[in-house]
Write the structure tokens for this entry.
Amino acid sequence: MAKLKMKKKSTSTDMTAMCDVAFLLLTFFILTATAKVPEALPVDMPSSVAQTKLPDTDLAIITIGKGADGKSKVFFDIKGREIRKRTLEGMGAKLGVTFSEEDKTKFALMDDFGVPLANLKQIIDMSSADRTKANQPGIPMDSLNNQLKDWLLVSRRAAIDIDNKELQIAIKGDAKEEYPQIRKIMDILQDQKINSFNLVTGMRDKNF
């Protein structure tokens, strides 16, 4: 008995729905993603397995690392726009530097910085891209001109005045930074009775 031959039919899959889903997912991720802001002082943080997240406000971050010239530099950042503005006002009054309302508004939107207060207006007037490329010398913290100590003191007062909260402190140091430089910062903190602070680290796989 002869076998019946089935006619072969061409098969096709409508990919329209799949393309629509892929396009919607791509659009969603593009619109919700946050671009990483380049750091003014990039540091290679030490690794740890700790997963404690730092707060988004009422926080001061002290960054210490080596610049392009190989010298250790200290940068400072404050999380919280109103606290930043109040701190700039306080620093200006303390060291006799005048800042306009426009300066204060721009400063409230900035990230970390590393210049003496007298040169801060030049950094404020730069675009974010130029600010990242600028060769900032670091905030003075020697015995005759310890502006880092002043920034900490004034920002802590501003946090209490605005939010009635104690400003949290975090140190973000390069893994290869020399201990004496870190010790200077810790001495400044202890002088202000700050014995509890955070160390910013990079994530490391628990299996290593």
